[in-house]
């Protein structure tokens, strides 16, 4: 084999190896990414059907029902609601009327089964996406009230 052919074979092999490594990294990232959606976006069908994602908003007052280690509650952006089921220990800051982000996917019965619950960490913090969703829902509610 000529030196020129050896160089071409090495370059092609290196490019193929780089392509395989890139594909593996992108696949790993794709399977670990959980996108954020508001309850309004979920109701509009924008959320993935068979994949984990995050839903954020406020925990509706009076919606938390405990059954031993399983908790049922509603996350809302004041326009739409998402019913959530979570089995496990909730964060200490989780309370009705406070912000929360839940990660999981929908059960066949239409209830969101959370694998992780995140509560806001102080009185003033809300995830920017959740704050934007609440603001948009308030604007939409005012527009409807004016009509």
TrEMBL record:
Compartments, record wording: Cell membrane; Membrane
Topology within the bilayer: Single-pass type II membrane protein
Residues noted as binding heme in the record, renumbered to the chain: 121, 125
InterPro entries for the chain: CcmE, CcmE-like_sf, NA-bd_OB-fold
Pfam families: CcmE (PF03100)
Protein task: Heme chaperone required for the biogenesis of c-type cytochromes. Transiently binds heme delivered by CcmC and transfers the heme to apo-cytochromes in a process facilitated by CcmF and CcmH.
UniProt-recorded name of the protein: Cytochrome c-type biogenesis protein CcmE
Species of provenance: Piscinibacter gummiphilus
Lineage: Bacteria, Pseudomonadati, Pseudomonadota, Betaproteobacteria, Burkholderiales
């Amino acid at each position: 084999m000529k030196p020129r052919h050896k160089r071409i074979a090495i370059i092609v092999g290196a490019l193929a190896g780089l392509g395989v490594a890139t594909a593996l990294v992108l696949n790993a990232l794709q399977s670990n990414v959980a996108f954020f959606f508001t309850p309004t976006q979920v109701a509009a069908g924008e959320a993935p059907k068979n994949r984990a994602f995050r839903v954020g908003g406020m925990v509706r007052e009076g919606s938390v029902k405990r059954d031993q280690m399983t908790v049922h509650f509603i996350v809302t952006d004041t326009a739409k609601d998402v019913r959530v089921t979570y089995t496990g220990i909730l964060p200490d800051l989780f309370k009705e009327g406070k912000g929360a982000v839940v990660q999981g996917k929908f059960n066949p019965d239409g209830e969101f089964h959370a694998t992780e619950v995140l509560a806001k960490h102080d009185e003033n913090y809300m995830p920017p996406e959740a704050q934007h969703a609440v603001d948009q829902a308030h604007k939409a509610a005012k527009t409807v009230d004016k009509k």
